[in-house]
Amino acid sequence: MLRLAAILSCLALAGCGAVPAQQPPTVELGAEVTLAPGEGVAVNNARLKLRFLGVSEDSRCPRDVNCVWAGEVKIQLEIYAISQSRVELLEGGSTVIGQNRVTLVRVAPEPASTAKIVAQDYRATLKID
User: Fold this and answer.
1) Fewer CB within 10 Å, N- or C-terminus of the chain?
2) Pairwise CA distance, residues 126 & 104, whole Å
């Protein structure tokens, strides 16, 4: 019985080996890509990887309310090029990394006065040129 327990323990530990890091999907330059928080993408023919970390600020006017100011939404991106860096982008804004430009096209969902947006429900659409 003790021998069986030892064998089962060894088999269980063997199954806990390191899992290789999964490569992010790739996109072509000029493409738009929509990412959820934590998701990333690599750009074909460019030494560039992006990861959407999350929304750091969302003061947009809810779609069911009349506001004097439209508000803004800001996201955090982790960028891997020659080195790793973090940037914040406003919706409609862009940043240049080497010879590439990353533009935040839109952030969904739009806020509503009747519901709070859960962090994991955000989606950022980026265009990479």
Assistant:
1) N
2) 5
